[in-house]
Structure formats: C-alpha cells, structure tokens
Amino acid sequence: MKLIYSNASPYARTTRIVLRELDTREEVEEIAQHPFDNPPQLISFNPLCKVPCLITNTGEGLFDSQVIAEYLDDKYSGNLFTEINKNWNLKTLYSLTRGILDSSVAWKQDKMRGEGLSSEFWQKRFINSIDRGLNYIQKRLNGLPQEFTALDINLICVLDYLEFRHPDYEWQQMHPELLSWYEERKSRDSLVDTMPKE
C-alpha cells in the first residue's frame, strides 16, 4: 500500500502516527506530495486532491484521515478505536478533536489570504471555537481511556498544529491541565517521528 501525505498536514499526520502505532510502516510506502501542486497520482485516487490518501493493494483510493485510520486499525487488528467505538461520549470527544482541527486549519487558511483579504470576523469565530473546544476537553481529561487511542492521536495533533501554525495562540497558558496531559505523552516515538514541518 501507499500513503500520500504532506509534512505540514495535521490530517495526514494522524494516519502516519497510526502506521507507527500499528508497526506497519514496512507494509505501507509513504509518499510526500503537496496538494497545491495538483499531483496527478493524488488526483487520480482522490478527486478532492487532499491528503492523506491511502492507495490499497487492490488499487483503491481511501481518503479522509478517519476513514484511513479506521481501515488500518481494522486491517491490522489494532485497538486504537475499540474503546471509542463502544462509548458515545468518547466518540463525541473524538469528533470534537476533528472539529477543533478543522477550525485551526481554517484559521491558518484565512491568515494566508493576507492583509485586507482575511476576515477578522471569521478568525474570531475560529479562535473562539478552539478556546471552547479545548476547555471542554480539559474538563473531561479524567474520562479519557487509559490506553493510547485515536482520540489521543487527534488531540495531540491539534495541540502540535496550534504551536506549529499559530505560535502566538498560547494554549499552554490557557489550559494548564491539558498541557500536563500533553507533556506526559509528547515524547512517544510515533509523535516525535511525525512532528509537523514545512
């Protein structure tokens, strides 16, 4: 199989972490491609031209980070989604991490429009949704699974992306309990190996 990704994509990073957690890197070739370059291979398997995209051994393209993560976890008999899929509250928190990530990426995209084109209104909405989302999760940290799961992966990718793309947004000061949770996990090999970069 082949996984098309970009180093800066937090969505692609979640799937790359899954590969490492399942110890399946030797079975999946990772191919770095930038979606803005409209690479023909990526477009042929994902008409949206977004990463990540997994090309299966049967020549099918799977896209959307959650779809790919669940596929890999199922195929290789992992436990990254086991607890989440048995608990509606955990599924809701998992969905929330995806929503916070969406707001974080949209905030960055709006910033990239440049002076006079970016929207103060939308940036404020994105920031407020991130604030509320992280606060919501921080209040529920004690309810997270003891084992490392896809929920942990998403949440860590959110926090690292905020530091990577929005260094002035000091989530660490606003959410100290979440910072403590993060500090206990950030040195995990799969996370260190996939840190976002240009």
What does this structure look like?
The protein is an alpha+beta fold and 198 residues long. 55% of the residues lie in helices and 7% in strands. The chain has a four-stranded mixed sheet. α5 packs parallel to α7 (150-165). The radius of gyration is 17 Å and the shape is globular. The model has no long low-confidence stretch (mean pLDDT 97).
Counted beta strands:
4
The oligomeric state of the chains shown is single chain
Series of secondary-structure elements, N-terminal to C-terminal: EHEHEEHHHHHHHH
Structural class category:
alpha+beta
End-to-end CA span: 25 Å
Tally of DSSP helical segments = 10
Strand content: 5-15%
Radius of gyration: 17 Å
Mean pLDDT: 97
Helical fraction: 40-55%
pLDDT under 50 segments (min length 5)?
A: none
Estimate the global geometry from the Cα principal axes. globular
Main sheet specs: 4 strands, mixed
Strand arrangement in the largest pleated sheet: 2-1-3-4
Q: Can you describe this structure in just a few lines?
A:
55% of the residues lie in helices and 7% in strands. The protein is an alpha+beta fold and 198 residues long.
Relevant terms:
4 strands, 4-stranded mixed β-sheet, globular, alpha+beta
Could you outline the blueprint of secondary structure elements for this entry?
Layout (H helix, E strand, L loop, with lengths): L1 E4 L4 H12 L7 E4 L7 H6 L7 E3 L5 E3 L1 H11 L6 H4 L2 H24 L8 H19 L11 H16 L5 H4 L1 H8 L5 H4 L6
Parallel strand pairs: 1-2
Antiparallel strand pairs: 1-3, 3-4
Helix pairs in contact: 1-3, 1-7, 5-6, 5-7
